[in-house]
Amino acid sequence: xxxxxxxxxxxxxxxxxxxxxxxxxxxxxxxxxxxxxxxxxxxxxxxxxxxxxxxxxxxxxxxxxxxxxxxxxxxxxxxxxxxxxxxxxxxxxxxxxxxxxxxxxxxxxxxxxxxxxxxxxxxxxxxxxxxxxxxxxxxxxxxxxxxxxxxxxxxxxxxxxxxxxxxxxxxxxxxxxxxxxxxxxxxxxxxxxxxxxxxxxxxxxxxxxxxxxxxxxxxxxxxxxxxxxxxxxxxxxxxxxxxxxxxxxxxxxx
Amino acid sequence: xxxxxxxxxxxxxxxxxxxxxxxxxxxxxxxxxxxxxxxxxxxxxxxxxxxxxxxxxxxxxxxxxxxxxxxxxxxxxxxxxxxxxxxxxxxxxxxxxxxxxxxxxxxxxxxxxxxxxxxxxxxxxxxxxxxxxxxxxxxxxxxxxxxxxxxxxxxxxxxxxxxxxxxxxxxxxxxxxxxxxxxxxxxxxxxxxxxxxxxxxxxxxxxxxxxxxxxxxxxxxxxxxxxxxxxxxxxxxxxxxxxxxxxxxxx
Lengths: 254, 251
Hints:
heterodimer; A: mainly alpha; MetI-like fold; globular; B: Rossmann fold; 6-stranded mixed β-sheet; 4-stranded antiparallel β-sheet; 8 helices; 10 strands; 33% helix; ABC_transporter-like_ATP-bd (chain B); transport (chain B); ABC_transporter_ATP-bind (chain B)
């Protein structure tokens, strides 16, 4: 039996209770819409959702890519320079105590309300999980494998390319997964600070006009986008590091 | 008398670690390896056998002494001898073929595909070249490690407990097979093991090491004629040699 079976049944049950209670207690639609109303809202505001999704998704993906590249390069640089690592790594950890959203007004001052401020914010949020995981992955490489390549006369670069980099990729992908979830979320929130288009703006507008059914529809849609993005990254991972998943699957079946 | 291909002279190795006391691991170790010879080094666990091989392979420096390949010093120089480590070390992200050609990949050398294919056949691995390490048995990985060490084409092959992790039957088979390969290819091999039978079975000479710090305490000639079959294991000469070694190791 599929592992989603029980959660799906339970969730459907909750939805039915919700529907019945809302109708029974005559709760106003602006306060809590019934699930059927939310589905209807999807149908009615489909074109609006699509219109705003393009912007949000572009921000999220572009910011994610920028953050990932930056995080990757940072981890690699730390790998090649101990001094750089000693200087930067503690600062990097401390920087994470700053709630990213409080930086947003600063970015608006420097870069305005356009897309660039949002891209920078998303990139700043996304680079961290990638950088930290990647760094750990590079350090996790099996000592025996390092010894092997070294004994064959391998240079530092060869050791990096043949052992450390492949060993770090599973870590990289688990970092990327976290970053992908952050990317969509950050894109939406960054739009609250100021934007002319995007799901975040649509969300705020719907909320302010008490179109609660649409608010629900947007929330569900945003979650759905995040899931799709994470799923895409998993597929990418399975294709890029098949050996890792082969070992994982092996362990699961044991 | 043939010239030694590998010469280790009074090598002393001290581990210095800031938070631990200095530890002398090797104390004036000297040994020779002639061309086409199999030489065993046996001793109790933690007597510095693996460290000795690490020093010869250039993976770690030494504090005193000389290590020479032909006439060149190979102290702190990697890539001059083949080294098969204790565990069957394979890159899990490379299939068998890619693992075997690693010595070429590491040094950016063109891969002699036909030679590799022929050797894979000899080593009984030709059907598994596209498999990944996780999909192979321990015995296969062991043979693959050996093949990789062999294709690197160095004169001297260092083996660190090459068959230690295998079960008795597989080990017996692989020892057989290994001698067979050696008979055909005539490599110069320095073999480190804690298994007396393995050492006697394979070696022309055996050095006995004592523990803490590692010293060579005896050198024993093993003159069973080659090619060796199982028969010599049943001789009284074998038994007395084994007893002698046991006593030496036990101190």
